[in-house]
């Protein structure tokens, strides 16, 4: 099932892999034994390497070139930043070995973020999408975290790390504003100065979050260069970091950018998957057959997926932003429409023209509106471990309304892409399958924009 | 292999005890005709080499002046391939060393090997890739080495002693020392640190050390060139070339030239 050949066209493998039965080991110790066995038997390429590389903070255990996931990743930044990245890598390694740091983070996760977040059985949604086949859909409720999205897991972790490193100032980019709010929150909590870069297009469509950041004491700097969205905010944040690197930490918000960000952010987000795994075993006594998460940079997806990578019967789907459709050219589906390139510090799939300039992207959700994707995702795609597909703006908007009405949960537009894919997948899943959707954030920030869009249509 | 134009130029400068003046202009800002004209003007005003910027959609090491210049060049349809063709044409009129400054993705997309052979064939002498640190630059440096293209690596004020040595070893043609932590065109910070780092680079290798970023006035050029083997001046010249008439521009360039010694 790790044959990558069937996966060259997004969505083409849906039928074949979805028919895998849910044959997972039961909870408890026997499972662990099976896990080791399955690891030994697994394809020698991807998963064993990933498993080894995933050891928290221990760069030595990587079987691959450091900072790389197969051919993807790396550290493509100006020399000025290289020492800072090395310092960060060392500090992260030390902190993740440091019991006191881990405890401090754990306490904050519980008391401040509100972890663990529930794993919620969405009865009416399950019925609607897969009632005939008794499909059970669970939602991992990252929308219930403090500040309203998974972003806080990473932002708070990095803020804590920055404080330990003696930095007095945090900067961050933000698309939907959730990462900006989370970073501003971490800065307020720890008494650090905070500057958030945000594209002016995003400032417009996520006005509520801009105000939240200001309330939290952060300065929001509007970026009106280029496409005025996330990528331009990252350019500007990198320029700031290059200038103020000595006293500033750049809280990158996703599993992208130069090493160690993709690994470090994944590790901070891995709590999502660890909790979900334990919760589903407790609730159902078996692992899920399917995981679904939206993928912008890809941190909520990596957070959920990372805990299940070794469970080869758990199928995973990452959902990119299909915007107005791939043919329209107005989308952010990097795997469907991009080629390998190097952008903002990392080698990965990239939406670019034939001479290597980065293309503008479009998505109704600011958080998925980005030209490249986390390098580990590119690797998991090649390895055939995760299937990547996309949902269009319209599909996401429909899912947004559907979840609101069926479950009383208003999801973020980003997460709505995952819901939309679940709707497509459910009918072809085996009877009684369990699916976990990562509900990465809540939709409060989106209601104004959705109301504007609905007004347009009427 | 015959000695490259850069090496020849630096060895001449060394013999004469002079310092290098390397101006930066954006290729195609706002047109290739203008760039061709500027190359001639810069040569007449005593440039020792010219750094030709290749426009890129996301120039993360550049300040507002070069960002805007890059946008104008992109609008004029310029890219890496067009820049190489431009060098090929201008090569018939000048023997000055020409160095491309390009971000990494256009080179990656073009193909590292194709670029490493194609650029020198077009008359390009060196390449500076600001988002390619030595750790990631091995493959293109080897490939370029085989074809006589100098890959110039950058060192920064934040680079520790070990990294300074690493950059000094890897760099070809010269070593580019970034004067400050910041982006192109920011305000120059003339510190003791700058002097110390340049001396360390000089100790680590015999290669010439050029200092760039933030130098705009003849006074600054004089101070910095006294510590190094020469200076690179970018944003200030890009701005001047856009705003000044030829006579005034010539005067400014000659003043810079005279200050660099």
Write the SSE topology.
The complex is a heterodimer of chains A (458) and B (261).
Chain A: H1 14-18, H2 29-41, H3 46-53, E1 68-69, E2 72-73, H4 82-97, H5 99-113, E3 119-121, H6 123-130, E4 136-141, H7 151-164, E5 169-174, H8 178-190, E6 193-199, H9 200-205, H10 207-215, E7 219-223, H11 230-244, E8 248-250, H12 261-284, E9 290-294, H13 299-305, E10 315-323, H14 334-337, E11 339-343, E12 346-350, H15 375-382, E13 386-392, H16 393-407, H17 413-425, E14 434-439, H18 447-457
Parallel strand pairs in A: 4-14, 5-6, 5-8, 6-7, 9-10, 9-14, 10-13
Antiparallel strand pairs in A: 1-2, 3-4, 11-12
Helix pairs in contact in A: 7-8, 7-12, 8-10, 12-13, 16-17
Chain B: H1 5-16, E1 20-26, H2 32-44, E2 50-53, H3 64-75, H4 80-90, E3 98-101, H5 104-110, H6 112-122, E4 126-128, H7 138-147, E5 150-152, E6 154-155, H8 161-170, E7 175-178, H9 192-204, E8 209-212, H10 218-227, E9 230-233, H11 235-243, H12 246-259
Parallel strand pairs in B: 1-2, 1-9, 2-3, 3-4, 4-5, 6-7, 7-8, 8-9
Helix pairs in contact in B: 4-6, 6-7, 8-9, 10-12
Brief rundown of the structure:
The complex is a heterodimer of chains A (458) and B (261). Chain A has helices at 14-18, 29-41, 46-53, 82-97, 99-113, 123-130, 151-164, 178-190, 200-205, 207-215, 230-244, 261-284, 299-305, 334-337, 375-382, 393-407, 413-425, 447-457; strands at 68-69, 72-73, 119-121, 136-141, 169-174, 193-199, 219-223, 248-250, 290-294, 315-323, 339-343, 346-350, 386-392, 434-439. Chain A has 458 residues and is α/β, with parallel strands linked by helices.
Query: What assembly state would you assign to the polypeptide chains in this entry?
Result: heterodimer
Query: Biggest sheet of chain B, in brief?
Result: 9 strands, parallel
User: Rounded to an integer, what's the Rg of chain A over CA atoms?
Assistant: 20 Å
Tally of extended strands of chain A? 14
Strand ordering within the main sheet of chain A: 3-4-14-9-10-13
DSSP summary: helix tally of chain A: 18
End-to-end separation of chain A:
46 Å
Write the H/E string of chain B, N to C. Answer: HEHEHHEHHEHEEHEHEHEHH
Low-confidence parts of chain A, pLDDT < 50 over ≥5 residues? 1-63
Show unreliable segments of chain B. none
Topology-level CATH name of chain B:
TIM Barrel
Taken as a percent bin, the fraction of beta residues of chain B is 5-15%
Mean pLDDT of chain A: 88
